[in-house]
Known about the structure:
Layout: E1 9-10, E2 14-22, E3 26-33, E4 38-45, H1 47-50, H2 53-66, E5 77-83, E6 86-92, E7 97-98, H3 99-105, H4 109-128, E8 131-132, E9 141-143, E10 149-151, E11 158-159, H5 179-182, H6 189-205, H7 215-224, H8 239-248, H9 260-272, H10 296-331, E12 335-336, H11 346-355, E13 360-366, E14 375-379, E15 387-388, E16 403-408, E17 413-415, H12 424-433, E18 437-443, E19 453-457, E20 463-465, E21 469-475, E22 481-482, H13 491-500, E23 504-510, E24 519-523, E25 529-530, E26 535-541, E27 546-548, H14 557-566, E28 570-578, E29 587-591, E30 597-599, E31 603-611
Parallel strand pairs: 13-16, 18-21, 23-26, 28-31
Antiparallel strand pairs: 1-2, 2-3, 3-4, 4-6, 5-6, 7-9, 8-11, 9-10, 12-15, 14-16, 17-20, 19-21, 22-25, 24-26, 27-30, 29-31
Amino acid sequence: xxxxxxxxxxxxxxxxxxxxxxxxxxxxxxxxxxxxxxxxxxxxxxxxxxxxxxxxxxxxxxxxxxxxxxxxxxxxxxxxxxxxxxxxxxxxxxxxxxxxxxxxxxxxxxxxxxxxxxxxxxxxxxxxxxxxxxxxxxxxxxxxxxxxxxxxxxxxxxxxxxxxxxxxxxxxxxxxxxxxxxxxxxxxxxxxxxxxxxxxxxxxxxxxxxxxxxxxxxxxxxxxxxxxxxxxxxxxxxxxxxxxxxxxxxxxxxxxxxxxxxxxxxxxxxxxxxxxxxxxxxxxxxxxxxxxxxxxxxxxxxxxxxxxxxxxxxxxxxxxxxxxxxxxxxxxxxxxxxxxxxxxxxxxxxxxxxxxxxxxxxxxxxxxxxxxxxxxxxxxxxxxxxxxxxxxxxxxxxxxxxxxxxxxxxxxxxxxxxxxxxxxxxxxxxxxxxxxxxxxxxxxxxxxxxxxxxxxxxxxxxxxxxxxxxxxxxxxxxxxxxxxxxxxxxxxxxxxxxxxxxxxxxxxxxxxxxxxxxxxxxxxxxxxxxxxxxxxxxxxxxxxxxxxxxxxxxxxxxxxxxxxxxxxxxxxxxxxxxxxxxxxxxxxxxxxxxxxxxxxxxxxxxxxxxxxxxxxxxxxxxxx
Length: 624
């Protein structure tokens, strides 16, 4: 048998990361579910239990029942299986502190009631589905960062009337065991409520009701001693809360709360009216005094005397009894009323029948849509008509008939069909035909075409209760990318934006009045949705053609004008008087200056010398 350790891969699926804890029956490991990419708590059964076929079969069957429990305060069971000679259960991994750690850190009465109330909610849900936890303790309750309490270890609890341990054996933690568990008697939902009462006691007072040097000594105290009230340890505990705790810790199961609902109602009332007195709490009676043993001779003489008297009285009683039995045989009523238990949960039905003195015989399980462990039929049926008592002729007592029950096993379990690669409608239909409730989610995928199923959760091949939800992930295809606004930006900025979206830039240039380097067009347009890697075309302005202004200073007026026109520029002539004869008729200045780069068609002003007098009005552009 392979030993699970850090780095082990269980069942080809669960990569073990670290140990979370260890118990008497199993170790719990933190593991990665490589199929569904999530973390799980992996409970692996100890090897000594894995060799017991009957135990393993019950472990597997009851883990399957527990997988049907879906409640915010109950840890989810995802999967179960076999791994190299042992067995495991994959459960929801809840990150947080145990209730035990919070108790050790200290809780107010309000905080204690708030958390224990959530444990009761989990127990109520489990009990309604025929599951009895049998090992409720603060170490099995995890409180997450939001303050939600989640009860763990339901995967190996008692389901219906089946037991994981052999009859008469004791399972659980001594400090939290009910008296009937400590004595190896039948365990019922009321036993869980006793354990929750111990948890509440510890949360209020900071310590458990009974301590001793050994587990046996603790169990004996659970059976025979009455604990001191929590308020004697923590004065902040109100009388009403005191009474609720002490009722939960009654030795007689019939004197305790008979349901989680009743316990919750008592806690709610205690928090609303903390000073109200509570009822139904056991009195604190002292133990009887110790009496010295008589001498050995005196004991022997007393025994002989008792034997003589017993023989005399036995003959008298036998004669009287024979007469009474003879009369009873002729006059007794041999009918009895059988209570109706159909529609109840199995545990409730058994309790009702046993309270009326009936024994429960065979329990037949059939697959039905009714909730698991709901009683469907009973034999004998409910009275009337009355059922016949089982009476021998000379017996003083008549025994009530055994009642056979037929209960729902739920809709049954089946393997989730594989739907990966199917079209959406075909996948949903296949899951419905298999008895599951498909739920649709759409996601983008680079590998799976739009409209096809990527995967399901739980995955195909997982054993699941019929009617359970199965999430189907359908591909939307490759995730589309929005084309950014590029027109008006500079070339380098536009290229950077395109690449930042996972797209491919394609740049071309053309002459345009816009400033050089500015994007003047793009395709596709801004806001369009395209696949990653799509080519985005941008056109960048080169600006208008630049012309170098020729040097016309010193040239004759007509030559200068023609030179400017030949360069694609527009001449503008101004005359200015000069006393220098050589400047008359020639260009003495120009603007823009020679060598300047300007756009074609730009106006260039030239100054032409004129002899004597004041300057004339400038000539219109283009004048010779």
